[in-house]
Amino acid sequence: MGFSAITPPPTSQDAHETLLEFPDNRLLIDLCGEFDRNLAQIEHKLSVHILRRGNQLAVIGTPEAQAQAAGVLTQLYERLEQGRPVDAGEIDAAIRMTDFGREGLGVTEQLEMFAVGKYEIRTRKKQVEPRTEAQKAYVRALFENELAFGIGPAGTGKTYLAVAVGVTMLIGGLVDKIILSRPAVEAGERLGFLPGDMKDKVDPYMQPLYDALNDFLPAKQMQKLMEEKRIEIAPLAFMRGRTLANAFVVLDEAQNATTMQMKMFLTRLGQGSRMVITGDRSQIDLPRGVPSGLQDAERILDGVKGISFNYFTAKDVVRHPLVARIIDAYDRDDGATG
């Protein structure tokens, strides 16, 4: 049924009210959420008041806020028509996208572009969608460039989206294998001796990469792919001497790679491969005086054809909203003491 199932939002005689009509009452119930929690989230975020009148929703607020809330409600209803879920994260994503639309393209044009964009990521277990404009640009860069950098604070989806794209390309036959790597650097702690074989020793450092894969692949399929070496998870030091052809390669936590390690890793790129480098310049755990290979790579590779740099801020954090506020607070403190 799509967008046509929703009548264009007419303006009532009251200039401060916009009416939206939704033909399917069952979907409208899902749109509102249990105890109208979804409407309450939109009201809080956009400073509007939303009233339900039969199969209509009345949006009350400033003209700009009405337009934005109408766009959000329309997009979310369209998701429900397509059998896709609406939760707090999707509501937040729709609001973020209309925020960008008000600053750049018109709200309607931006929503339509996002809704029909070809950069949805389909994996075996779930469909992943960018939730901010920066994430959308990043996903686009992952598909379009052989080497892409994703740089920004924790919680912005840099590694998660990269692994999702890698899984999509693997199951789609665009690459033969996925290789995930990160420097085995302790995050400000001395972990001491770890028992077991080499895999047992390095797995604690690699766990975030396993977690991302588990979100996209059934456990049995993931185990089979790892046994066949079609998915590899290894410390950065293990990359020396390899040529990585027809592979989707991710280097996570790249701020903890030295300049020589970064150069070594970048020159592993083989025919038919794609490489993604992710990192957070505010979380460098290298010994004092050792320069970060990520920062050097930004400077040296700036402007090189075929390489993209995508940057994230606290506004792109898709974890708990408090995480974004924590990052902002630390950034302000660094600015005040720097």
Task: Describe the protein's architecture and organization.
Helices cover 44% and strands 15% of the residues. The chain has helices at 25-32, 37-46, 63-81, 88-103, 107-115, 133-144, 158-171, 198-216, 219-227, 259-266, 293-301, 321-337, and strands at 17-21, 49-53, 56-60, 121-122, 127-128, 147-151, 177-182, 231-235, 247-251, 274-279, 307-311.
Helix content: 40-55%
| Structural shape | globular
- In round numbers, the mean pLDDT is 79
CA distance, first residue to last residue: 55 Å
Strand arrangement within the widest β-sheet reads 8-7-9-10-6-11
Radius of gyration: 23 Å
Derived from helix and strand composition plus strand pairing, the structural class reads alpha/beta
Largest sheet: 6 strands, parallel
Q: How many helices? A: 12
User: Uncertain spans, ≥5 residues at pLDDT below 50?
Assistant: 1-15, 100-116, 187-191
Number of extended strands = 11
Order of helices and strands: EHHEEHHHEEHEHEHHEEHEHEH
Percent of sequence in beta strands: 15-25%
SSE diagram, text form:
Elements (H helix, E strand, L loop, with lengths): L16 E5 L3 H8 L4 H10 L2 E5 L2 E5 L2 H19 L6 H16 L3 H9 L5 E2 L4 E2 L4 H12 L2 E5 L6 H14 L5 E6 L15 H19 L2 H9 L3 E5 L11 E5 L7 H8 L7 E6 L13 H9 L5 E5 L9 H17 L1
Parallel strand pairs: 6-10, 6-11, 7-8, 7-9, 9-10
Antiparallel strand pairs: 1-3, 2-3, 4-5
Short description:
The protein is α/β, with parallel strands linked by helices. The protein has helices spanning 25-32, 37-46, 63-81, 88-103, 107-115, 133-144, 158-171, 198-216, 219-227, 259-266, 293-301, 321-337; strands spanning 17-21, 49-53, 56-60, 121-122, 127-128, 147-151, 177-182, 231-235, 247-251, 274-279, 307-311. A hairpin with a 2-residue loop joins strand 2 (49-53) and strand 3.
